[in-house]
Each structure stands twice: as structure tokens, then as C-alpha cells.
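Translate structure to sequence.
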């Protein structure tokens, strides 16, 4: 199970069951939040239905998909360009601490830098998730000066 044998590719509709399972596991692990699987599956499919909603990337080994990441988009009028937001990051527990996320992150970063009109990458992380924060710091991401505030209409 070597990380060198992992390919990064855009997700396909046939990956929906794995993406849904991984996203549900991520929500539970990071926030102890149980997601409605039907809604989650429909929300995942919706990304494939409209490219402006985002794009999933997966890390794939011969044994199957072992990691995922969703990219969504934010327009910046200040920069006249787009940020790519990294969301729904999940690596199968058997593959953690082996560089799977690093491979996903580097592939996404390269694609973002090669895409005209993309000015940067952002992500948010649960405040108490110090392990994820250390991983992101190792990827040369830094804490922004902004805080995320929200009103969540769908709990």
C-alpha cells in the first residue's frame, strides 16, 4: 500500500457512494455530526450536475478510492479572480499519515495555479482539529486573518 501507487483524478458519478460515505464519516469524526445520508447523496450528485458548484477530486489506489476533496469557488472582486475552497477532505483511516492528502493537495494546487483566473486556495478547519491544522501548515497554508461566521439554515 504505497502512496506512490496513488493516482489523483477528478471524481466520476460512479464514485458517489464512496464520496457520500467518506463525507458522512468526516462530519462525524470532526464535528460528531450525523448527516442525513439521502440529502448528502443528493448534494454530492448535485456537484456532478452543475460544474459551477464545484468539483470532487479523489485519490485512487488499485484497491479503490482512498481519499477525497471537494473544490468550490468564491469570486473575489478585490482580485478580479476566483479562490478555490478545499472542502470535504477525507482520507480512509487505513491510508492516513502516508501522504495521501499531500498528493491530493499538490495536484489541486498545480491545477489551480495552471487555471487562468484563480488567485488562491482557501479552506476552513474545525477550531479544535489540531491534527488537520498541522497537516495544512505542512502544506504551506497559513492561518488567514479572517474568521468564518454563519447562519446555518439546514442543521
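Result:
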Amino acid at each position: 500500500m504505497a502512496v506512490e501507487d496513488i493516482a489523483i483524478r477528478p471524481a466520476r458519478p460512479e464514485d458517489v457512494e464512496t464520496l457520500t460515505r467518506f463525507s458522512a464519516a468526516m462530519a462525524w469524526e470532526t464535528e460528531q455530526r450525523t448527516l442525513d445520508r439521502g440529502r448528502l447523496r443528493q448534494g454530492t450528485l448535485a456537484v456532478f450536475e452543475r460544474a459551477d458548484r464545484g468539483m470532487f477530486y479523489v485519490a485512487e489506489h488499485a484497491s479503490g478510492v482512498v481519499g477525497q476533496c471537494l473544490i468550490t469557488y468564491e469570486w473575489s472582486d478585490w482580485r478580479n479572480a476566483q479562490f478555490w475552497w478545499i472542502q470535504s477532505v477525507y482520507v480512509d483511516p487505513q491510508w492516513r499519515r502516508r501522504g495521501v492528502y499531500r498528493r491530493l493537495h499538490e495536484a489541486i494546487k498545480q491545477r489551480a495555479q495552471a487555471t487562468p483566473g484563480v488567485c488562491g486556495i482557501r479552506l476552513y478547519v474545525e477550531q479544535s482539529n489540531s491534527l488537520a491544522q498541522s497537516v495544512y501548515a505542512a502544506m504551506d497554508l497559513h492561518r488567514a486573518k479572517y474568521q468564518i461566521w454563519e447562519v446555518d439554515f439546514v442543521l
